[in-house]
Every structure is written in structure tokens, then in C-alpha cells.
Amino acid sequence: MIAPPKKNSAILSLKGSSELFVIGWKATNSAACKQIGQIRKIYFKFVLLKLAKQLQARIMRLLCDISHGGYLAL
């Protein structure tokens, strides 16, 4: 039988397509919580970088369309 999670255990949930990584835990000084905090920071940096690259590609395509007399499509 699997025991239910304790109040201050880490709660991890991953939402697929939106790439939103949510970590909630009761603040403690345990090493595990600190490690999870580091993982969360790295993951958010990765997601933000990925979103920035997608946005940059979209803007470049948009500018290219405009400069070639194309139509504006967002």
C-alpha cells in the first residue's frame, strides 16, 4: 500500500503543451527542497529561452513577409 504524501513533501506537476512546470512545497531547509528549487530555476530559464527563440523566428518571418510585399498574418 502506498502512503499518501506528507504535507511538506514536494508536489510536482507537469502541464503538457503549455510547458508550465509547477512545483509547490511547504518551505523547509531540507536539501531536497533546495535541489528542487534549483531544478525549477533551470527549467524556467530553458522555457523562457525557447519561447524567446520562437518569438524571434516569428518576428523575422513577419519582417520578411512585409519586405517582400506580403500580407500581415499573426
The secondary-structure element order is: EEH
Structural class call reads alpha+beta
Q: For the terminal residues, how far apart are their CA atoms?
A: 52 Å
Strand order of the largest sheet: 1-2
Average pLDDT, rounded to a whole number, is 61
Weakly predicted, low-confidence segments: 7-28
Fraction of residues in helices? 40-55%
Net shape:
rod-shaped
Radius of gyration: 20 Å
Q: Outline the biggest β-sheet.
A: 2 strands, antiparallel
Number of helices: 1
Which band does the percent of strand residues land in?
Answer: 5-15%
Description:
- By secondary structure, the chain is an alpha+beta fold.
- It has a domain at 47-73.
- The chain has one helix at residues 31-67, and strands spanning 11-15, 20-24.
- The protein has a two-stranded antiparallel sheet with strand order 1-2.
- The radius of gyration is 20 Å and the shape is rod-shaped.
- The model is unreliable at 7-28 (pLDDT under 50).
